[in-house]
From TrEMBL:
Highest classification ranks of the organism: Eukaryota, Fungi, Dikarya, Ascomycota, Pezizomycotina
Keywords recorded for this protein, A-Z: ATP-binding, Kinase, Nucleotide-binding, Transferase
Basic and acidic residues bias: start-end ranges: 351-369
The encoding gene: BUD16
UniProt keyword Nucleotide-binding present: yes
Name of this chain's protein: pyridoxal kinase
Coiled-coil region(s): none
Ranges where the record places region Disordered: 180-199, 338-369
Source organism of this protein record: Lithohypha guttulata
Family note: Belongs to the pyridoxine kinase family.
Amino acid sequence: MSDPNEVDQNGNPVPETRVLAIASHVVYGYVGNTMATFCMQTLGCEVAAINTVDFSNHTGYHQWTGTRTPAPQITDLYAGLRNSNLLDYDVLLSGYIPSADVLHEVTTIARDLKFRRNTMNHGRFFWVLDPVMGDQGRLYVSEELVKGYRDAIGQGSDGPDLLVPNGFELELLSGVHLAGGGGGSEDGGELERKPTGDNFEADLGQVKKAIEVLHTRNGMPMVVVTSVRVQGKQDVLCVVGSEKKSDGSSRCFVVEVPVLDCYFSGTGDMFAGLMVARLREEAAAAGLLNKASYASEDDVLATDLPLAKATVKVLSSMSAVLEKTMQARNKEMEMWEGERKGMGQVASVDPQDHKGEEGGEERAKSLARTKAAEVRAVRNARDLIHPKIRYEAKELQE
């Protein structure tokens, strides 16, 4: 196997990387493995995917068909890879998981892959965990699965190396209310579920406190909170990351990005997929791929961490793609509105939209709006490969 710290002969800064991605799959649109796999492959990673669900489309359409993959089937698929000696992965990326049974199997797979890779002396195995549980104060998985995630992040060296929750998920896992003033406990107990991470109520000091809990209590090496809306910052989203020092203390940085007036699906998967490649790139440049969790020395400043540099690149790519997606959405909806007006009110609902059904026109518009906002990842792949750096990471000292 080649040295993972070397740049390849084509000048690709992302080292040779093999990823096992375990997440959802949709036939139409870009979420889950569909999004994350495309992003990683675009940046040169070899990706094998196990789908935890197979749906016709993502849930943003509020209707879908498909099936959830039972845990025994995931066990069987992984056994097939093992029996054929196809386990030479550098990274596990796990996203949406439908049940506690499936999560248990994913953690078993992670432990097995870590043991195999870390005993081969060809770079350290790395697990990126996106704990998909809810958003905007709403939980859309079972309480049993929430408990399963809390257990998974407490497994020490067998657990994830990088956790990428949103603000609401950070609250659930840490037990720290991002707005402060009670509503939970730092022992991971019950937390009053208010959308503090999403409605411009969060306090950056509380975000840092929550991350520190995951560092010290759970031993989590790296955390990046993907979207936090902070008090007094109506026009920006804060992305907050940290890598713990050897004593468990945090090194927090924050990157501010503008809020776009558009609802996108799959941005968390996009962030996680791009982060896999960009963190490998930055860790390779720092000579850290042979160290557990790609750990930097304690004297490295928060803003100089490979994690911070990778986060800036990822967000620069994403903002470019999402801005172009929003522009395309606006044009598409203008055309849709024009076509509807031309058809007249009587014929304004297509047969498949249940013509005559109460609220049918609004439903048709909602579906059209969701479709128009599908992330244009393929069309704008150049922005994934060659991002123009737009942001900077700043040390979070609050």
